[in-house]
Amino acid sequence: MNIDVGLCFYNDLESLKHSVPTYQEHVRYIHAVDGRFQDFESDKDYSDPEVIEYLKSFDNVKTDRFVGVEHDKRNRYVKLAAKYKADALLIIDSDDYVLEADWDLFYKSAEERIKQYPNENFFGIDFRYTPPNFKPVEYTAIPRLWARPQECEYYKAHCIFKSSIGGGPLRSSDTAPKILGIKCASGDDYRSEEYLNKISKYQGKMIEYEIPIRHALRDNKVF
Fold it and tell me: Between β-strands 160-163 and 3-9, what pairing exists: parallel, antiparallel or unpaired?
């Protein structure tokens, strides 16, 4: 089974150094999309050369570049996974990493679940947020494994997606069928205060943009 990773990043070298080695040897390709989100404040559109050099040191990383709204940037790695005929796409951002994994079980579980749910594209994995000096908080079955990526896309927001088979638009949900064998986590430990401040400003703008879309979805309105 061909499982690739979709990686969204921008000038986050230390996080990447922590993240990528936790899964790089266990997936076929890593589709790494560089570029500033549209409302992320920076005088550069793309990452510094050393960031790209680090990623290209791995022979299974395929890099791409895009500047624009977040869901359009994320659709780049979905399309790349489809182009290279991935059976499934595991979504891991630069601040995410694999906390622990039984890779044989993960692949077996993914294959079995995808066969079990032929009309389902979005599957969950055990995902945790790990703030410094706190016990990890567990979020179960966040939809981070997308089966048959040629059928999938982000739809008008980073947390809303749809597929040609499974339908949608859909919000992220903890009721997605769960893939066993892997636990991922996310944290800001490797980011500077300046970077975090820019992220906070960006996220505020992103939420403001997404609120009417989320409300329309909740109210079953066309958007």
Answer: unpaired
Helices (H), the chain: 13-19, 49-56, 70-83, 103-116, 193-218
Distance CA 173, CA 123 (A): 10
Residue 45 structure tokens:
């559109």
Distance CA 167, CA 170 (A): 8
- Retrieve residue 222's tokens: 């066309």
Between CA 13 and CA 56 the distance in angstroms is 13
Confidence (pLDDT) at 163? 95
The CATH class of 3-218 is: alpha beta
Amino acid identity, position 63 = T
**The one-letter amino acid at 20:** V
The DSSP bridge partners found for residue 137 are 129
What are 96-111's pLDDT values in tens digits? Answer: 999 999 999 999 999 9
Mean pLDDT of the chain: 93
Q: What tokens appear for 58 in the block? A: 């791995």
* Order of strands, sheet of 178-186, starting from the edge strand that comes earlier in the sequence: 61-65, 30-34, 3-9, 88-91, 137-147, 122-129, 178-186, 96-101
Contact in structure between 62 and 32 (CB atoms under 8 Å) = yes
Of residues 163 and 139, more confidently modeled: 163
- Asked if residue 22 lies in contact with residue 94, where contact means CB atoms within 8 angstroms, the answer is no
Q: Supply the pTM of this predicted model.
A: 0.94
